[in-house]
Specification:
two-stranded antiparallel sheet, about 10% strand, about 300 residues, five-stranded mixed beta sheet, single chain, 16 helices, alpha/beta
Length: about 300
């Protein structure tokens, strides 16, 4: 249909066989979502077709699950102002982009496969960034994926995190409460399905924190975390060719990827400004109101972990 971007034959097969997508039924599915949104006094959401179809695909075309995920998407963003409030493509966000700490690789894991994203802390601390800066940038990029990346929406994402240059001071910044919140958002709030998280060259101090953070996440997410001693071990699961040139692969040069990402993200300035118009008002929610404690369950229980 004209409102929705055409997809490749490979992605079409995945959408129809794995996600239960029926192209002829899309107009009715979108209308049903819009009709439901019109009846939610507490929820103000975007309603363009490309945005809504991402939630239908992310929920395998279960209308009830798509409704729930849309509600959680805006509810969790409202409940996590430290990550989502007042986001803009300012100098700090652009600097995080230029550092190349978090990049979306151009070639997915096969023509109809998941999008691969790489985190590398090599240039992170030298620029004076904090982990919260990275989380704010990552969630901005996530929303771009929802709107523009059909591989990510239909086949999910694979996250590769190279921790070889992650310092002890950065490990000490890990806020278990915030990690739990990010896990809840990834599970309940985003239509992008996380297919796997691969931690490589992980220092022993970080393993302790990450295992604790993982234990607080939903069981489905816990099972998708994998730890590898080195890149060679990772390559047994994700062949080297899918890594960027700097890692001995053929999946783009990080400098080129970063330059393109900067241009792409600058084009999202208006989108980020518009986001302040959307969200939830718990005072208007029919039935029981949601709170941070009911959503995350650990408010006040954890703070930044002390590292001896």
């Amino acid at each position: 249909m004209a409102e929705i971007r055409p997809i490749s034959a490979e992605l079409r097969q995945v959408a129809e066989t794995e996600l239960n997508e029926v192209p002829s039924r899309l107009p009715d599915d979108l209308k049903a979502l819009r009709d439901w949104l019109a009846k939610q006094p507490h929820l103000k959401a975007r309603q363009d077709a490309q945005f809504l179809v991402a939630f239908l695909r992310g929920c395998k075309f279960s209308l009830e699950k798509a409704k729930s995920k849309l509600d959680y998407f805006y509810t969790l963003k409202t409940m996590m102002p430290e990550v989502f409030a007042n986001r803009e493509m300012d100098e700090r966000n652009i600097a995080v982009c230029r550092a190349g700490t978090y990049v979306r690789l151009p070639k997915p894991f096969g023509p109809g496969g998941p999008r691969i994203q790489l985190t590398d802390y090599s240039n992170f601390e030298s620029n004076g960034f904090k982990l919260i800066d990275l989380f704010r940038y990552q969630t901005t990029l996530l929303e771009q994926l929802v709107r523009e990346d059909d591989n990510a929406v239909i086949s999910g994402t694979i996250e590769i995190i190279n921790m070889s240059k992650m310092s002890l001071s950065l490990v000490a910044q890990m806020d278990i409460s915030l990690i739990k919140k990010m896990g809840v958002f990834a599970d309940k709030g985003t239509p992008i399905r996380l297919k796997g998280v691969h931690l490589v060259n992980c220092p022993k101090e970080a393993i302790t924190v990450l295992n604790l953070g993982r234990s607080l996440m939903p069981a489905k997410l816990q099972s998708r975390f994998h730890v590898h001693r080195n890149m060679e071990e990772l390559s047994q699961i994700i062949p080297r060719e899918y890594m960027p040139e700097e890692y001995g692969g053929s999946n783009g040069r990080i400098a080129d990827i970063v330059a393109q990402a900067e241009q792409d993200m600058l084009s999202y300035s208006n989108y980020l400004k518009e986001e302040s118009n959307y969200g939830v008002d718990e005072q208007l929610r029919p039935g029981k109101r949601l709170t941070a404690d009911s959503l995350f369950g650990i408010e006040g229980s954890f703070r930044k972990l002390d590292i001896d």
